[in-house]
Specification:
heterodimer; A: mainly beta; 11 strands; B: 6-stranded mixed β-sheet
């Protein structure tokens, strides 16, 4: 079992550009959540996808959008990048229940210059 | 609304000493509580979780935590620290009410283990 896989592992972008991050969930999981972890901070919830729909969204602007595909993989898109978007972006997969364990990927380190 | 406060951004212990990492939560409904560990350049790994039932929860790698409703706390302990325990630890809260599916994390506590 490969667990949760994210790509790419590292990425450098310029202010104003757009970026797409990808996540493949753990085998059997159909729910994907995205978190942003700024340096020295805990992860902050961006949104969660289930059955290809955004089920819940955190306090992030509309520049952050996502998608879930029929095979449950997911993408996180960020438009008009700001320096403050530099962070580790974590994907977590789980079953759809409220207290099931979320398995995290190793993350994508995004640097905006 | 729910929130988590981790007291102490950095805790340093000697190898073999007791590890105590503090977590207090705020939640308007009965909480689900979690401790995650993050090693350098890696994602988060679940150590243990409390949902309902027994308030003393045992996790992996010898860690345990006790849910104390009266103190709104969920402190993480380990009787004897190993060098391999050096990592960042995050407390998180969720709850069973409504349509809440997110984990709310504290800012983390960096654990250093000295030989």
């Amino acid at each position: 079992d490969a667990g949760v896989t994210q790509s790419p592992t590292h990425l450098i972008k310029t202010r104003g550009q757009q970026v797409t991050l990808r996540c493949s969930p753990k085998s059997g999981h159909d729910t994907v959540s995205w978190y942003q972890q700024a340096l020295g901070q805990g992860p902050q919830f961006i949104f969660q996808y289930y059955e290809e729909e955004e089920r819940q969204r955190g306090n992030f602007p509309d520049r952050f959008s996502g998608h879930q595909f029929p095979n449950y993989s997911s993408e996180l898109n960020v438009n008009a990048l700001l320096l403050g978007d530099s962070a580790l972006y974590l994907c977590a997969s789980s079953f759809p229940g409220l207290n099931t364990e979320a398995f995290f990927g190793q993350g994508t380190r995004l640097t905006v210059v | 609304a729910q929130s988590v406060t981790q007291l102490g951004s950095h805790v340093s212990v000697s190898e073999g000493a007791l590890v105590l990492l503090r977590c207090n939560y705020s939640s308007s409904v009965p909480p689900y509580l979690f401790w995650y560990v993050q090693y350098p350049n890696q994602g988060l790994q679940l150590l243990l979780k409390y949902t309902t039932g027994a308030t003393l929860v045992k996790g992996i790698n010898g860690f345990e935590a006790e849910f104390k409703k009266s103190e709104t706390s969920f402190h993480l302990t380990k009787p004897s620290a190993h060098m391999s325990d050096a990592a960042e630890y995050f407390c998180a809260v969720s709850h069973s009410g409504g349509s809440n599916y997110k984990l709310t994390f504290g800012k983390g506590t960096l654990l250093t283990v000295n030989p």
